[in-house]
């Protein structure tokens, strides 16, 4: 579907109660599981979309995709639906063209590897043009950071008032892990 169709679907779905939306996306995930294998922590569903849902999905993921899409040239999915119902967060998005890099990894030639490196460099350069909202190290809109690499128990941590304070926290954690 073209991006406009996903945006129209997004508006239509947003008019429904969250309880009904949760049931619809849950059912769509089960339909998708019959046809496509699960990819990472999201499930492909009919209509060229993916659903990511659960207690580890964050509402901010969809908000960040919208922000990146409106401030850069980085290709991002269209966010069709993004809400919290009960303990679960639902993120429904369009599918971008292409396939998983892992599927082609063994057959990548040096020329293709160079092309991918150039493409990734352009994407990162575009992301770096987005000015940080503050000097602090924090999650989306000043929230704590949810990152398993920083906290193995996946509980939020931070924010920190400066990059130096963030580095001090990382070093404290590293020393604690080594002892």
Describe this structure in words.
Strands 1-2-4-3 form a four-stranded antiparallel beta sheet, sandwiched between helices. It is globular, with a radius of gyration of 19 Å. The chain has helices at 3-14, 18-35, 59-71, 101-104, 110-128, 163-178; strands spanning 43-45, 49-54, 79-85, 88-94. With 179 residues, it is α+β, with helices and mostly antiparallel strands. It has six helices and four strands.
The number of strands is 4
The sequence of SSEs as H and E is HHEEHEEHHH
User: How does the overall form come out from the CA principal axes?
Assistant: globular
Mean pLDDT, as a whole number? 90
Helix content: 40-55%
Terminal CA distance: 54 Å
Report the major sheet. 4 strands, antiparallel
pLDDT under 50 segments (min length 5)? none
Main sheet: which strands, in order across? 1-2-4-3
The radius of gyration over CA amounts to 19 Å
How large is the share of residues in beta strands? 5-15%
Count the DSSP helices: 6
**Class by helix and strand content?**
alpha+beta
List keywords for this structure.
179 residues, 4 strands, alpha+beta, 6 helices, 4-stranded antiparallel sheet
List the helices and strands and how they pair.
Layout (H helix, E strand, L loop, with lengths): L2 H12 L3 H18 L7 E3 L3 E6 L4 H13 L7 E7 L2 E7 L6 H4 L5 H19 L34 H16 L1
Antiparallel strand pairs: 1-2, 2-4, 3-4
